[in-house]
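Lecture notes, unit on protein representations.

Consider one protein chain, 167 amino acids long.
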Amino acid sequence: MLKEDSWNSRDKLWKTVWKIPGPQRVRFFFWIVLKQKLLTNVERVRRGLANDASYSICGHASENILHIIRDCTVAKEVWKQNYGALDGLKLIQRRGHDNVIIHSDSLEVVKAIHENDSKKPTSALLRRIHQILSQERQWIIRHIPREENQSADYLAKMALGRGGIFT
């Protein structure tokens, strides 16, 4: 475990965090994680701010940093689905299509895109999805249960088999 007194400005790990490409808030988030200052339920219990250390999103016994960032199956699935939508939209954009129909077996993804269509999304990923969709002449997103869309399910399984952080 990393401890606050283990911080060393010459340590390669600490320097690497600040060289991560992307928004400053992402680098700051990783810095907070490395310093173990993310206020998880485990930390809340330790500080006497809560009585329950469990993670309500997936039901895991303890909401700690490693579980939230790396181990939570619910979080992995959400990242995979949202990045899958973004990858598909980038492909459509590169090929010059201007009418887009998206079928997703993830009701959460469909809801997130629809709900954030009427207001400014708080997620950088959703903002990027909306940016791409705003450049399309017409777009529709619909929830299709996986059982009803076996072709898309097969293609998704093939794409995920390419090897990545979630496979």
